[in-house]
Amino acid sequence: MLGAMQDWPLRVSTLIDHAAKYHGNRPIVGRSAEGPYVETTWAGVHAAAKKVAQALNHLGYGSGDAIGVMAWNTPRHMEVWYGVSGCGAILHTLNPRLFSEQLEYIINHAGDRVVMVEPDLVKVLEPLVPQLGTVEKWVVLTERANMPQTTLPDAIAYDELLAMADGDYEWATGDENDPCGLCYTSGTTGNPKGVLYSHRSNVMHALFASTPDCIPISSTDVVMPVVPLFHANGWGLAYTCALNGAAMVMPGRDMTAPGLYEMLEKGVTLTAAVPTIWLGMLQHLRQNKLSFSTLKRVVIGGSSCPRAVIEAFQLDYGAQVIHAWGMTETSPLGSVCSFKPEVASLGAAEKLDVQTSVGHPPYGVDLRITDDAGEELPWDGKHQGKLWIRGYGVVKRYHRMEKDAAEPGTQWFDTGDVATMDPNAYVRITDRSKDVIKSGGEWISSIDLENAAVAHPQVAEAAAIGVPHPKWDERPVLCIVGVNGARPPKEEILALVGEHFAKWQIPDDVIYMDELPHTATGKISKLELRKKLNGLGYVHPEAA
Amino acid sequence: MLGAMQDWPLRVSTLIDHAAKYHGNRPIVGRSAEGPYVETTWAGVHAAAKKVAQALNHLGYGSGDAIGVMAWNTPRHMEVWYGVSGCGAILHTLNPRLFSEQLEYIINHAGDRVVMVEPDLVKVLEPLVPQLGTVEKWVVLTERANMPQTTLPDAIAYDELLAMADGDYEWATGDENDPCGLCYTSGTTGNPKGVLYSHRSNVMHALFASTPDCIPISSTDVVMPVVPLFHANGWGLAYTCALNGAAMVMPGRDMTAPGLYEMLEKGVTLTAAVPTIWLGMLQHLRQNKLSFSTLKRVVIGGSSCPRAVIEAFQLDYGAQVIHAWGMTETSPLGSVCSFKPEVASLGAAEKLDVQTSVGHPPYGVDLRITDDAGEELPWDGKHQGKLWIRGYGVVKRYHRMEKDAAEPGTQWFDTGDVATMDPNAYVRITDRSKDVIKSGGEWISSIDLENAAVAHPQVAEAAAIGVPHPKWDERPVLCIVGVNGARPPKEEILALVGEHFAKWQIPDDVIYMDELPHTATGKISKLELRKKLNGLGYVHPEAA
Ligand SMILES: Nc1ncnc2c1ncn2[C@@H]1O[C@H](COP(=O)(O)OP(=O)(O)OP(=O)(O)O)[C@@H](O)[C@H]1O
Ligand SMILES: Nc1ncnc2c1ncn2[C@@H]1O[C@H](COP(=O)(O)OP(=O)(O)OP(=O)(O)O)[C@@H](O)[C@H]1O
Ligand SMILES: [Mg+2]
Ligand SMILES: [Mg+2]
């Protein structure tokens, strides 16, 4: 006997349908490729998305076809977002900052049959065309009148695509487990790996992401995703905004602090990006004595958020920080730092301490930490170990891999992160497994070292890595980029670090660099950093 | 090709697992059958629920078996709630205030194999035993030491049930569409009808109910469901509190205003009940010059909430009112009155007007209004018609019926309510189809008439019904219960009503009564009221 309730498949088209019907006039505005500023609404996005879907079907694309989209955060990207998934195809988001070999690899690996690309990004793809065997159709996200010169074969303009449709279209139907989107990991620890989201996983993620202890967004919010929609499923924001009928401000391609500030001042109440973006923003605010008129909340994740950033936003600029941890593989939210009653009544400084953790998992996410042997570790805030995750939004198997990534049966997925959990289930990411520094058999958290170092006013960026040591196996050293080329004395930096660490944990050396190597999503690449140090012939002073 | 994400079945056991693991210490407190006050936690409820489930399996009950539960809102009820569904059985909530024939009907119709009942309610069931053919096992929700004398055959006590289990138990697994709970409608318009919730429908409802524009509950909330868990799926609160890790205060059987006030003062931040409860509470507060120390939000639904109640809570007692509309058939939330940006900036009086509507549907619910021919009506706030609903939490077919209740294909379900919708999708329930007053072919809203009449300080309750009229077919009359037996002059009441209605809409007569007939959930029964008026030989003055 089954329950006798209605059984609607969880499809992402239900999200945009809801937004268009019940929040149809809510503005979706932003910078576009052609002009400075465009304005539409959820109803407008819905109507255009239907045309995109209908036109793709008309061209012969639909169920199960991968369609690559290389676009900035624009209102039009939202139309394409829902149009591609709505026609039954797979929205494959492309990060234009990937190395060309990586781009070539993921487009071929995904088997993209159509690629849609911003006019200013055709240059990124043109050289790859000969190697891209599966791409049959190129669409440039602009009007015919504004088409750039391009060697992309037979490229059509977005308005020409839309002209193939009259908008009288029913969304593709199908199983809720049908594939819906495809996003490759950032490639920080190796080659990007593909995560094939289903309609169901995306809707479930949008639902639990909207719960009060996660990242609740209401219809009165105006949300600006600074995090690109092509980074880790756009942090789910394209879905959660529709589900809750929030307005959106799309910043377009200008990721400079002045450019973003201008857009934040268009009524934005909630925004989201990686820490480096906010470091730049805070500098800009300070230098120009600016403040926010409407901003209430800032979601920060993707890398560990330094305490100073949290403090500045909250105390100096009146915006609450929501520190979140997630992965492409987890749709992406894994844990969010909201205040449970156990910590809600702590003093200001202690609450800030809590916020340097990545918080606790929402309903729909399950976590555990284990030692290397797979034995579960206690939640005492001290034991650190492998962090595992499972849930509605978590990958089972990487795209086109032979074997499951999650443990068969239990479905536990090894995040590759190292963490502690405290008795209230607050998680602290201390390292990536591959970046762990082990000195004399004991772990030293590279993330904590880095966060301690960037607290120095003249340190712009810091990376801690382990270098070989004759006696201790490995010892930590710090690579530092100074603010405007500054070289704050080694002793000063290490003294600052020493305030939070035991003596044996303090790095042995500080190496000054003009810049640190970054990945396509703006994270420090320890892989490249190690190569760079090797290239420089660096060895530990005591190993010289 | 399917998406390659993890596919966890939506089972309600995942809700209590989450609460116990990530919000384990959150208090679940309340009045019990035995003592004045008991305290447990989500971890405690979880542990006891596992024992309930294990013991039921041990006794031979499980997958698909209906288990009747007649209980007040107590911490123990929460244990039974998750225990019954957790063992694979169907939690059939029993309303002790139903007429005995109705109780007999629903227990037999459901085929309950076990019935669990509060010690003070065994008297309600004892006389029915001979007629209850399917019940094999009786459990009294108390300790053996406190067992009441009872003729329930071989009744065991709750602690004896728990003693059959050691708690080392894995929740029953199965399809997410397995039946999970069973609740019969209130019986306002006829015999109660059974709604068989699935695990999936309950989890989906809990998720969308938790979104910001619906009834967001966070882990810092302390929730007191005054609405009985046996009324309309307990308004979903047993699920949403677990999903969000909220604390709960369970008021037990004492539904008097002083009794409830005492419990509200135990830190409650959010509570929920039908309007009559709050009318009594407001009187109690005024008479005793009391105020609330912690209460922030009051959910009101089940019947239309008069404007004066909303105003008093918000202006005099600092608690925001959340006016909600729902049905047993819809899990139950259908629409909730939160402020969209279009109304958020209105003046205070206009915002109050908005709050007398039942708001707009959350994601997961779809609504439409039609005329009698099934043609969709415009959302202009004027056209009123049949209200239809569909969604994840909506019934497809009543329990053990031959035919679907929802329209095949479209799944639209006729709510039996009459409503208007405005351009922002705010819904106003003007009537039940069966109670509609049609004078000279034109509808007059009985709900609006009643709300206008109870604004009179000496009117405790009012019911508007249509009585036959020689010329106009039907004309409205008002049945009135005065505060403490008062009989405010007819002219005064009608003058008050006249402020909001056209002349032809004003009732022709006022009939004073000592009390109005109510259903088992405390709603005015128009069915019985009509019988009563007929019994009194009432005829319209102009028809006499
Ligand atoms: N708040 C945070 N604090 C610390 N680390 C974080 C935080 N949020 C995310 N991360 C890091 O980012 C990772 C997820 O990033 P993403 O999925 O974009 O790809 P990547 O792991 O950087 O690349 P790849 O998997 O290809 O090496 C997490 O596993 C974690 O290491
Ligand atoms: N906020 C509200 N305003 C007006 N009416 C409401 C509101 N909330 C609920 N209702 C009424 O309550 C009904 C649902 O109640 P419930 O499911 O408890 O059973 P019932 O309809 O009273 O009984 P039965 O269906 O057996 O006649 C709705 O259809 C509607 O008529
Ligand atoms: Mg990774
Ligand atoms: Mg009904």
TrEMBL record, chains A, B:
EC number: 6.2.1.44
Domain of life according to the entry: Bacteria
Domain AMP-binding enzyme C-terminal, residue spans: 449-523
Family annotation (SUPFAM superfamilies): Acetyl-CoA synthetase-like
GO BP: fatty acid metabolic process
Keywords recorded for this protein, A-Z: Fatty acid metabolism, Ligase, Lipid metabolism
Protein name according to UniProt: 3-methylmercaptopropionyl-CoA ligase
Naturally occurring in which organism (per UniProt): Albimonas pacifica
